[in-house]
Amino acid sequence: MSELLSRQVANLSPEQQELLRRRLAESKQRDAQPAAFHELFESWVRRDPDRVAVAFGDEQLSYAALNRLANRLAHLLRDRGVDRECLVGLCMPRSLEVIVGLLAILKAGGAYVPLDPEYPPDRLAYMISDAALPLVLTRRSVAGVLPEESQATVLAAEDFWPELQTWPDTPVRLDGIVDDLAYVIYTSGSTGRPKGVQVTHRGFRNLARWQFENYGLKTPRRVLQGTSLSFDISVWEMCAALLSGGTLVLPDPGLKMAGSDLADVLIEQGVENISLTPSALSTLPEEALPHVRYVTVGGEACPLDLVRVWAPGRAFFNGYGPTEATVGVSLARYEPDLERVHIGRPISGMQAYVLDSRMQPLPVGVAGDLYVGGSGVARGYLGRPELTAEAFVANPFDAGGRLYRTGDVARLMPGGDVEFLGRADDQVKIRGFRVELGEIESALAQHPDVRHAAVLLDQDGA
After folding, report:
1. What are phi and psi of 48, to 5 degrees?
2. Residue ranges of the AMP-dependent synthetase/ligase domain (predicted)?
3. Structural domains of the chain, count
4. Are residues 137 and 285 in the same domain?
5. Which of 4, 62, 169, 396 has its CA 20 to 30 A from that of 244?
6. How sure is the predictor about 309, in pLDDT bands with cuts at 50, 70 and 90?
7. d(Cα 427, Cα 423) in Å, to the nearest integer?
């Protein structure tokens, strides 16, 4: 054990010291050689070019066709000034074009910033200004939600699509970009301003490898992509399909992602792999969906009753991972006879630590602050150096590494799994979405008739 690690774990038993040392060593040993998202996608283009990559209603694109379109658009974007780490807005409803646009931004060396057309115009205007976006890709049907006065050039798919045939379908050549930004996703902020989380390409290969090994992806699967790009579960869904040779199934943008409406799409499209919040999964008729073989839940607590219904005959996973750690930190596979809900163990290349206020590891069973580390840890918050320094700290167990202070409370279980216990602050989850109560309070306080504001979560849903 290194001198650095020895000093940090002095309050643990010899057995727990050995467990921590072994977990860190295993994480480093299995940490895959990093690669950019689009490079991992291109490896499947070479392996199986004719396989369907994306399906949207009656439309579909093969891996080869999707790659060619994305390459052409990448060249166009380069001509419009997109270079390495250039942030490009993506404001489109669910469609084939949005996947082409996303890949093209990455292939051009840029990073995409999702701008959900369903967001309030004021919020979109703030994100475009805060990220200083020079360019936004959109469609005419939703372009009206974008601010009229903005520094960003707006490029509609209907305008650039006919031009794509004039650009080369060969890839843009870029080297050494695994530590470049891949995307910036805005999350709720306690000060009343959303904050942009800067995520690089470095964590994608470990994520894709876990999915390939645990989702049975040696046989390509049809994967639902039902989450808005503004939430990082969408990245998980895209990885499970496009980085594993599967098919990404896009529902109609107006579809209600719950109940019989969603069940009908899953049946019609033969979807085999879904990732949903427990509350959304609970609305689906399990008996009508025998072809759904892989189920992952996350974003909120998973009730044991849900496991009893959905785990028999399926691979059922509960995942944990903040946006600041490239979607997935740890996952647990649940069997139908599960007795205690937990979030499992870190995936390859990631670490999880339960620490006290002095950044010392806590013994098994003792609640403490949950910190995560590894290749998926984000760069920080866009334009917020003080907030970044507060949330992203030096890793005392791994010289040169960084940890993200999640704000979650957890404890280690005797078998080595992590049990999530709740939050240490005012952040809440509503239908799986992170919400800072301070952001709501700040918005309420701006009203001239409001002197002070306080917001509480109604746990009973009344």
Report:
1. -145, 70
2. 41-382
3. 3
4. yes
5. 169
6. very high
7. 7
